[in-house]
Amino acid sequence: MAMSRFEYVKSFETTGVLDPAHWIVITLRCQNLDTISQVHKFQRPNDIRFHQVMEASAVSVMGEFKELVLGYGFSGEFNFVFAKNTTLYKRRGPKLLTNICSLMATTFVYTWSSYFESVTLNCLPVFKGIIHLFPDDQILRDYLTKEQLVCHQKNLYNTAIWSLVSTEGLMPQDAASALKGTSEGEQNEILFSKCNINYNNENPVFKKGTIAVRCKKQVPVTTPDGSVTQRNQSTIVTMQSDFNKDKFWTETFALQQPTKHNSKTSYVKAFEKNMELLPQTWLVVRIDGKGFHRFSEKHNFEKPNDIRSIELMNRAAYQVMNTYPDIVLSYGDSDEYSFIIHKDSKMMKRKENTIISSIVSLFAAKYVYDWQDVFVGVPLQYCPLFDARVVLYPNIKCLHDYLSWRQADCHINNMYNTCFWMLVQRGSYSRRRAEEKLCGTFSDDKRAILLTEFNLDYDQEEAIYRKGTTMIRRNPSEKEKNSGVSYLDDIVIEHTDLINDTFWEERHWLLSDKPRG
């Protein structure tokens, strides 16, 4: 392969395989919940519609991932528990986290209108993901017990604040001052004496949160001979229950090891996995669509390239780059995008899982949010998934070679796909026959096929297909616009050659300046 000299950059990738025989718990927290609630004027202290969106999204995630056996959520948070012995994706933490995170984000956007019927979604969710690894059943129980206690404490406090606001006419900050330093008992007394509210009668979904359990149920199935038989089918059941009670752990979700209620649960934070990435290294976050071959077939993407799909990917990438100023450059083609974060960046304290989950959730949410604007008249059949990883590169040469590798891959794939679909669409080849014809061919062979059989000069094809899309920060000292370049705020969108040194020599400010964050 002509560009094989760039392949070495793959050796910097790590798998992030999680220890075997441990419970894997993935926690997603909506980072911008306060902004979402303010923008959409949520009911206080709780908006049942938001709870329904979160619950529906979480149930959809559990429905997609059969290895998820238990879930628990409240407010803007949801915890997903994988079976202790799962081998899904061979237990690669970043892949598990980002697939779940992206699906939660896309489903959130997709289902919003079902519950907020007259409220347009104007602020996309960003989820911070955390991975916990628990070696035994007792720690799993202690963790979920702690989470449910946090749910109760936050809800009691918020109920007291907003009840004082509504009944006593206090400003929120004054109500918060009045509650400062109060105990749970005192907050209950304030609710009862001043607001005529018995907290015990409040909606249990807000007091206890939602538990989602995977269960088996018998369903009738008709066999080929016409007879009806009963078979087990997996289903997700939601409920409100108490994690601190033995009944849940013995009857609803039976554990193999004996457990007991433990009032001291703060220790579980030590089992959190969120590695701080090495300083003074360039961070590359690469997003890939999961199962996009099937997704493109289901939505009848045009072949060999669908400009609508590329536009949607570019919109999502622009949203990410515009949100996080420490991203100095983005490059994408087909169903993937790479985001380059400056080596001096302290973005999100350089926490690996926080960075990849935040970027992939915003990217995925924007993809679904803009779907109808780009794919006009094409209903979204199901929500797409994306996985993400972060790779560290020690110097600019490695970074250049990484981007050269991705652009070389774009060229190789696009040339093959262009030739393949010309043979199928205009040459009346079957797909199998087209594959056989192209098997073992080189770039020159494919160019010759395109030119001699279809009078198509590959080098005249649109650069967006041959070279992909590059987004960079505009040089702060240069205000003039160059021909052929489109400007969106301070982000420049180009379809240019990243392999030759010319690109970097003309844009020296990209990798030399401090990050803008």
Notes on the protein architecture:
The protein is α+β, with helices and mostly antiparallel strands and 517 residues long. It has two domains: 11-149, Alpha-Beta Plaits, CATH 3.30.70.3000; 282-512, 2-Layer Sandwich (Alpha-Beta Plaits), CATH 3.30.70. It is 43% helix and 19% strand. The chain has helices spanning 33-39, 48-64, 93-115, 137-168, 172-179, 184-195, 204-208, 246-252, 292-298, 307-323, 352-369, 371-374, 396-425, 431-438, 443-454, 463-467, 502-506, 509-512; strands at 23-30, 68-74, 77-82, 127-134, 210-222, 228-239, 272-273, 282-290, 327-333, 336-341, 385-393, 469-473, 486-488, 491-494. The strands form two sheets. A seven-stranded antiparallel sheet has the order 6-5-2-3-1-4-7, with helices on both faces. Strand 9 and strand 10 form a beta hairpin. Helix 2 (48-64) packs across helix 3 (93-115). The radius of gyration is 26 Å and the shape is globular.
**Which range best describes the helical content: under 10%, 10-25%, 25-40%, 40-55%, 55-70% or over 70%?**
40-55%
CATH classification, class level of the largest domain: Alpha Beta
Ends apart, CA distance between termini: 39 Å
List the strand order in the largest sheet. 6-5-2-3-1-4-7
Using only CA atoms, what is the Rg? 26 Å
Please tell me the overall pLDDT.
Answer: 94
* Sequence stretches where pLDDT stays below 50 over 5 or more residues: none
Give the domain tally.
2
Q: Please state the structural category.
A: alpha+beta
SS field, number of helical segments: 18
CATH fold-level name of the largest domain: Alpha-Beta Plaits
> Major β-sheet, in short?
7 strands, antiparallel
Q: Categorize the overall geometry.
A: globular
Give a count of the beta strands, DSSP E runs of length 2 or more. 14
- Write the CATH architecture name of the largest domain: 2-Layer Sandwich
> What is the beta-strand fraction?
15-25%
CATH superfamily caption of the largest domain? tRNA(His) guanylyltransferase (Thg1)
